[in-house]
Amino acid sequence: MESGPAVFAGTTFALFGAALLVWTGARILHRAPVAHGVSPVVSTALATLFGVLFLVLGVWCFTHI
Protein backbone atom coordinates (compact mmCIF):
# COMPACT_ATOMS: atom_id res chain seq x y z
CA MET A 1 0.00 0.00 0.00
CA GLU A 2 2.84 2.41 0.64
CA SER A 3 4.21 2.14 -2.90
CA GLY A 4 1.11 3.77 -4.44
CA PRO A 5 1.93 7.33 -3.34
CA ALA A 6 5.60 6.86 -4.30
CA VAL A 7 4.63 5.74 -7.80
CA PHE A 8 2.23 8.67 -8.18
CA ALA A 9 4.80 11.20 -6.91
CA GLY A 10 7.59 9.71 -9.03
CA THR A 11 5.45 9.79 -12.15
CA THR A 12 4.34 13.36 -11.49
CA PHE A 13 7.85 14.64 -10.84
CA ALA A 14 9.35 12.79 -13.81
CA LEU A 15 6.66 13.96 -16.25
CA PHE A 16 6.89 17.56 -15.07
CA GLY A 17 10.70 17.56 -15.24
CA ALA A 18 10.73 16.04 -18.71
CA ALA A 19 8.06 18.45 -19.95
CA LEU A 20 9.93 21.43 -18.53
CA LEU A 21 13.15 20.34 -20.25
CA VAL A 22 11.37 19.75 -23.58
CA TRP A 23 9.60 23.11 -23.36
CA THR A 24 12.82 24.92 -22.47
CA GLY A 25 14.65 23.22 -25.33
CA ALA A 26 11.90 24.18 -27.79
CA ARG A 27 12.02 27.81 -26.63
CA ILE A 28 15.80 27.87 -27.03
CA LEU A 29 15.68 26.33 -30.52
CA HIS A 30 13.13 28.93 -31.66
CA ARG A 31 15.15 31.72 -30.01
CA ALA A 32 12.10 32.69 -27.98
CA PRO A 33 12.32 33.91 -24.39
CA VAL A 34 11.92 31.26 -21.71
CA ALA A 35 10.48 33.84 -19.29
CA HIS A 36 9.42 37.38 -20.09
CA GLY A 37 11.12 40.21 -18.24
CA VAL A 38 14.07 38.10 -17.08
CA SER A 39 17.56 37.72 -18.46
CA PRO A 40 17.58 34.97 -21.12
CA VAL A 41 20.63 33.32 -19.61
CA VAL A 42 19.19 33.26 -16.09
CA SER A 43 15.77 32.01 -17.16
CA THR A 44 17.27 29.25 -19.32
CA ALA A 45 19.65 28.17 -16.58
CA LEU A 46 16.94 28.08 -13.91
CA ALA A 47 14.44 26.25 -16.10
CA THR A 48 17.06 23.65 -17.01
CA LEU A 49 18.17 23.30 -13.40
CA PHE A 50 14.64 22.76 -12.14
CA GLY A 51 13.80 20.39 -14.99
CA VAL A 52 16.77 18.20 -14.11
CA LEU A 53 15.97 18.50 -10.39
CA PHE A 54 12.41 17.28 -10.90
CA LEU A 55 13.60 14.39 -13.10
CA VAL A 56 16.11 13.32 -10.45
CA LEU A 57 13.45 13.61 -7.76
CA GLY A 58 11.11 11.41 -9.81
CA VAL A 59 13.81 8.76 -10.29
CA TRP A 60 14.58 8.94 -6.57
CA CYS A 61 10.91 8.25 -5.78
CA PHE A 62 10.94 5.25 -8.12
CA THR A 63 14.04 3.80 -6.47
CA HIS A 64 12.39 3.92 -3.03
CA ILE A 65 9.32 1.86 -3.89
Characterization of this structure:
The protein is mainly α and about 60 residues long. Helices cover about 80% and strands about 0% of the residues. It has helices at about 5-30, 40-65. Helix 1 runs antiparallel to helix 2.
Q: What is this entry, summarized?
A:
The chain has two helices and no strands. It is mostly helical and 65 residues long.
What are the defining features of this structure?
65 residues; mainly alpha; single chain; 0% strand
Secondary-structure map with pairings?
Layout: H1 3-29, H2 40-63
Helix pairs in contact: 1-2
Q: Sheet with the most strands?
A: none
**Class inferred from helices and paired strands:** mainly alpha
Q: Please tally the helical runs, counting DSSP H or I stretches of 4 or more residues.
A: 2
Radius of gyration, CA atoms, in whole angstroms: 14 Å
Order of helices and strands: HH
Average pLDDT metric: 93
Number of strands: 0
Helicity range of the residues? over 70%
- Fraction of residues in β-strands: under 5%
Give the low-pLDDT segments: none
First-last Cα distance: 10 Å
Shape: elongated
